[in-house]
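User: I'm writing a tutorial on reading structure tokens. Could you give me a worked example: one chain, its sequence, then its tokens, then a sentence or two explaining what the tokens reveal?
Assistant: Sure. Here is the example chain.
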Amino acid sequence: MVVIFQRSSRKITTILEMQKESASKPFKCFLSTMLCAILLVSPLTIFIFGFNSSYPQCIFATNSNISLSHGLIALPDSLRREISHLQIKLGFLLEQLHDETSESKVIAKFSEQVLYIAISLDKIAVSLSESSKNSPSANNEVSNVDEDFSDPEEGEAEEQFMSGNVFKSGEIRSYISPKPNRLVGKKNFLGVDALTPSIGLACAKMASNLDQFMSYKVHSACPDDSQIAQKLIVHGCDPLPRRRCFTKSPPHYTKPFPINASLWTQPSDANILWNNYKCKDYSCLVSKETADRRGFFKCSSCFNISQRGWNVPTNESVSAEFTIDEVLSLKPGEIRIGLDYSPTTGNFAAVMREKNVTIASSTLNLGAPFNEVIALRGLLPLYTSVGSRLPFFDNTLDIIHSTLFLDGWIGIELLQFVLFDWDRVLRPKGLLWIDRFFCHKEDMKLYLEEFNRLGYKPLLWRVVPKNDKLGDELFFSAVLEKPIRG
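And here are its predicted structure tokens:
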């Protein structure tokens, strides 16, 4: 079979070289020859290597446990990956043959690309032949030893993600398949000849939900399924795959308010899609009679943005809060960019903007349009879950502020991962502002040990009783300075 494959591949190469020389012939002749060449390669390749194919992308996966019998050798991983890559290329070319309208462009472009693929397949055939000759068991039986340059766990994870047995949606399988560059064999500015889109590890455990999320008509309107998307994110399927559909807009959308006015002006109802929320207008979000419909209970008053700034009690024995001016005075002129890691509608970021500090607000839509309101106020919403790595580079932020997200519910190991990610993105001498972290009295020492583990310098520090409970909980607030590490 290897010899047949070599001869077939070389025959295709000869045909394509002749085709390239006679590029001036009618396009129909070219198309006929090209299709014949591809059809000649495809059955042989599919028969020999046992790939699952579907037009137009041809290959979504390879089985890492493939073992050929009846006198054929088992393919090394490196060869199988290369063959999979080439078959994807053939699928793209088939698709484009039906889409192209310029005959001259088709002749010039496709003859080169298919010629490259045919030559590459010929080289693979030679490699297979050499492997067969060098195999110690080539004359008797097939060797079950396969080249594997990855850890077994990585191989299993790759097989699980790339296998059609995990995801039923063709769109998700299409998304996670490698995306070769337009110019075959040429590396892009990132130094790779193909990009492999990423999805979260937990997506495999939520395959049915992800299939539902990725079931839509390509190039049409997206389903109204923001709740499914957030469910996937919260359960660890993060990042989500991209989608090739158009997001719905509010049907009566109006232009936003000017920046100076938008910070403290109630947004228009017309600029929010209310379908997935219990409240169907903004007045519901601020009414005292609709407390059960305003979303996250800890931030039920967040949507009342008519009052400028924070009302912070000044009695230190009662209040666990620090004022923004108090914190900024610790680093005059040095705090420029930062992150608010809280369930919020942007009040903290709005006050900081008035003080010439740019803050990104990281939150989820917890039963209400948190992200929409932040954006309508002219601020920057960052739609991330507690379990996600922050999308910032190392040593870049001046300040991180957090309140109400991380409390006594959080396990120590998760808290460590969060704190060390905050440490990663904070610059040296940057500020970590822990605002009203609360837990049971017996747990406070355990949590404080984790904050002390960072080795930060405490600039402000306060522990006070949480008076709205039975006296068994405490508030902890602190502003900590990151050290310079060698």
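What the tokens reveal: The beta strands are 179-180, 194-195, 337-341, 358-363, 380-383, 397-403, 426-440, 457-465, 473-481. Confidence is low (pLDDT under 50) at residues 1-5, 19-29, 38-73, 134-155.
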